[in-house]
Amino acid sequence: MIYQAVTDLLHYAHICRLLHAADIRWARNSLLDDLHLNDWQARIPQVRPLEEILKDILDWAAAQGLIENDVTSRDLFDTKLMGRLTPPPSQVQAHFAALYAKSPEDATNWYYRFSQDTNYIRRYRIKKDIKWITQTPYGDLDITINLSKPEKDPRAIAAAKLSPQSGYPQCLLCADNEGYAGNLQHPARQNHRMIPITIHRSPWFLQYSPYVYYNEHCICLNQEHTPMKIDRACFGKLLDFISQFPHYFVGSNADLPIVGGSILAHDHFQGGRCTFAMEKAPIETVLTFTGFEDVSAGIVKWPMSVLRISGKKTDRLIDLADKILSCWRGYSDESAVIFAETNGEAHNTITPIARMRNDNFELDLVLRNNLTTPEHPLGLYHPHAELHHIKKENIGLIEVMGLAVLPARLKTELALLSAAIPDGRNIRSDEILSKHADWVEQLQGKYTFTQENVKSILKKEVGLVFVQVLEHAGVYKRTADGRAAFLRLIDYINQH
Questions:
Q1: CA-to-CA distance for 102 and 343, rounded, in angstroms?
Q2: What is the SS3 assignment for 383?
Q3: CA nearest to 42, candidates 2, 80, 12, 81
Q4: Average confidence (pLDDT) over 337-359
Q5: How far is CA 367 from CA 262, 381, 448, 474, in A?
Q6: What is the pLDDT of residues 154-207, one digit of tens each?
């Protein structure tokens, strides 16, 4: 079996153009070395899915005692094997540059496919994600239950605690990850290749997220391990990126805890080729900023508080965005429960998103505040406790734009609820499902559940909970008082 699997893996790499015909013998011997095999038995190659080929090799390796048979160990080993078949960075960068000279879109099309062919993006895991669309007053929101990040085996977790700790690479985004062998605490990246780019006259890299939450989900990261910061330069970097890749959007997580992303220690952006509901949302209140009459501006019809500015000249957008940010950083409105700082801790920041629209540069500036209160210790402008049964995690850039990334546990919990609700079972007495009891009781007052409709109702209502999540994260509520408070901020900006 092992010789057939190795033959098929080499054939796969050749037809995907990872391997040149002249390199097949060399690559085969590298694989044999990794598998502790000292001979070779030729086989007729078969065209099979990569997942199937690698499974055969991993099962054999586990049976031979070469690896532990858990997800982490298997991932480390199959990444090592794919790294043997992945062209070196110099070749990848040269091919990307040649394509980019013809068309940026051609270059990213190739690079995205390449990142999947090398198994850096594991197609078979991405396909496991559960996705649907929920119609809402703000447009069609994308809902996903993310299953592409494997959950670690308890044995691997225990082993990781006993293994030596390392500070290299410094984080999951650092350029030093390219080609890194990984360990029990850090994913292997031998099949990872990065594209060097220049952003705002500084060296950066382009890569794709291995988990691909949406189409062509890319990451643009600073070559240096330096903290994220939302400032004037950030706006310039975002607009510089889309001037180079106009078919992509790009955005940054906020730079404060609670309202920021999971990695604040390394300056990076996320982008890709996807149109989210927020981009489709119209401007509902047209604004004019004093001194910037040449820049189109308005408040977006969205559950969070979004200012949209657009124009032909990037320097004008940068100037206005910087003014809005500077004013917002120091702005307080006690009647709206907005405080720029408490006890010396700053609270106001922005989640910015840049794109091209009808040959204009466009920035969406999402106002964020990470104030905590005794009633809401995880954040006043964060999903409140009654929504934690669906979404408790931070609301970062991706969620802000209208894509719910929900925890994997919901796959099991929604399936159990779909069976329990039509049968009239007591949800409160169920150890796993009791967290959903209040929500289910509300739904039972709204619907007559049957075996036929329960799944569709739950999906719809999960999507509507996500709307509430975004509304909670909105600094200015969509009420008469909230709109009046939002316009007070606009007046403040125009007066400064």
A1: 54
A2: coil
A3: 2
A4: 97
A5: 19, 10, 40, 8
A6: 454 445 445 565 689 999 999 999 999 999 889 999 999 999 999 999 999 999
